[in-house]
């Protein structure tokens, strides 16, 4: 009678029906989960057991549909309301640059193309891009002298994306940013110990960065790799980049197979961090990381169809909206 959507106490007429069913000698079979308070002689769950002791009925859902990302995940991204105002898509702050100038700007363009309305780049490096808001940090690297400026920007951001092109001399700043941020995506040079952790966090390491923060490299075997990432995801969601991406929040594990060998070019990981940051403005960390991996890989595949092995990370942003937002019209 009632399933997983029930909340609070059972009300009439269900309370009376449950009492009569329990008093009956007829066998009671519950589907997926028993109605609260009912005497169930048998519970039959579809696909996977929902309660302990349930029998499972196979309804033909393949394992791949559970463990791999796909276009069906995109329905989790809420559509923009018709009356939406500026800022409804979220505000992302990108903190990075210094030794490597372009990385934070690639991440920022990923965030814009993935639906963020306002994207600011706090960096010592300036790359003129009119769609982005540049927050100037004097000098050649980000230091504690910049914290007052950066933290004031963190306060207004929905998500902070931090680490791209930062260099290894700014980790104290990264830790301070993490302590102040509501939601954050940490990538590249921000992935060092002590590990930064915002209130909600996504980490986007490649294999070498994963080894740096987890104390061990990920195994080659995919199942073992999934278990390794799951065990390491104690402070937030980890998106381990690779030929097959592995995403875990410590309880769930998903894999992403989109992508192309052409994406070994520099900057594609920065783009991924920006996409994750934009999605994180609107959906939870695990879902944002899964969809970001799928979208980034598909955008790379589409760009590679045009450019082949000469593809650049900057060839990819234009394909992000095509993958993320051009959903088929309902029939």
Low-confidence stretches: none
Radius of gyration: 23 Å
For this structure, what is the CATH homologous superfamily of the largest domain?
Ribokinase
Biggest sheet character: 9 strands, mixed
CATH architecture of the largest domain: 3-Layer(aba) Sandwich
The neighbouring-strand order within the major sheet is 6-5-4-7-8-9-10-11-12
- Helix % is 25-40%
Through-space gap between termini: 32 Å
Question: What is the CATH first-level class name of the largest domain?
Answer: Alpha Beta
Question: How much strand?
Answer: 15-25%
Could you say how many structural domains there are in total?
A: 2
Structural class call reads alpha/beta
CATH fold field value of the largest domain: UDP-N-acetylmuramoyl-L-alanine:D-glutamate ligase
Number of strands: 12
Helix and strand run: HEEEHEHEEHEHEEHHEEEHHH
Q: Please, what is the average pLDDT?
A: 93
Shape: elongated
Q: How many H/I helical runs? A: 10
Folded structure, characterized:
This protein has 331 residues and is α/β, with parallel strands linked by helices. It has 2 domains: 42 residues, no CATH class; 240 residues, UDP-N-acetylmuramoyl-L-alanine:D-glutamate ligase (3-Layer(aba) Sandwich). Helices cover 32% and strands 15% of the residues. The protein has 10 helices and 12 strands. The strands form 2 sheets. A 9-stranded mixed beta sheet has the order 6-5-4-7-8-9-10-11-12, sandwiched between helices. A 3-stranded parallel beta sheet has the order 1-2-3, with no helix packed on it. Strand 7, helix 5 and strand 8 form a beta-alpha-beta unit. Helix 3 crosses helix 8, helix 4 packs parallel to helix 5 and helix 8 packs antiparallel against helix 9. The mean pLDDT is 93.
